[in-house]
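Box S1 | Example of a co-folding query
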Amino acid sequence: MRTRNPNRNLVDHNAPEAAMKLVRFAALYFLAALAALLFAEGVRTSAAPPASGFVLVAHCGAGDYSKAPPGVIEPRRDAMVVAIKQGYAILAAGGTSLDAVEATIRSMEDSGLFDAGRGAYYTRAGVPEMDAAIMDGRTLAAGSVASLQHIANPIHLARLVMEKTPHVMLVGPGAEEFAKSQGIELVSPFYFYNEHLWERYKNAKSAEEKKSAALTGDSSDEHGTVGVVALDQQGNLAAGTSTGGTVLKMPGRVGDSPIIGAGTYANNESCGVSATGTGEFFMRNIVAADICERVRYLHVSLEQAANDVVMKELVDQHGEGGVIAVDHQGNVTTPFNTTGMMTGTVRGDGKISMKGWSKTADPIIVSASQ
Ligand code: ASP
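Box S1 (continued) | Returned holo structure for aspartic acid
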């Protein structure tokens, strides 16, 4: 009769357990080594906290304020400050960069003082057609809308496209049908009527008829596209842009602002960008994505990437405009190759720094909490 080995059970049960321990140890060792490697090489993860807290930057278009009569710059600066305060309050309370970007742009759309929402320029047909986009740098989710004629806040509709549809972009009547399905009221073209814009439209039209070079009308009245980039306390970037496009554009023309990667882009791994200027150049050069990918792949600074694109490549092609950009560490750059591009920047200290109506003017600092 075979005697039973008393250790047999022990051996049988412990062998897999010991093997598991070894596997667990090896896995832990592998993870620790990987973490050390990533850290040593400075590899970024999308969850990395920002080095300098939250930041929000807004622009209201690139152009020429040098001939602007008194009383033109100040109200626009004030309207930007009002808008930036809303974004600041969201970020300071720990809210998301997406919410801050949307709220800031909505306020500028409502003011009627910028080429977006209520102040959007008219096409050759004498009605506005608006474009907008928003992008979430954490997930790369994006929403955009174009050729809208009856939507008061295109940036909000862009956000709904991002969050409530499987698509990135909706245009024209389809986009407005979707807006209705989301409970957004369509507004009549009179919502966008303002005497000043109408005069400008008529002047541009008659200049065109006389084959004058001044197709864009009175350049002393800069009245631009709006855009915002923000980095929130969780280290997440978002970017958004809203516009009526260029003066006297052809009906159906879509610019760079709603094109993801051209006028608007955000990626936590690199940066967020909102552009302004002659959209066709920004589309051909996929400006916003190019800046972010230079940061990501070439490991150049945000400032260098944005300067190389805006001040060299665009200038070589006579592409006018500028960008606001924020990287995942909270660095900000706002290059423009035009005479001016008004911007406002606010960080956790609550001081809004407004500048850009001329290249030499000192910034004006305004408190975000008053
Ligand atoms: N980029 C806009 C467009 O081409 C216009 C602007 O920023 O002024 O539609």
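The radius of gyration is 25 Å. Residues 1-15, 28-49, 213-220 have pLDDT under 50 and may be disordered.
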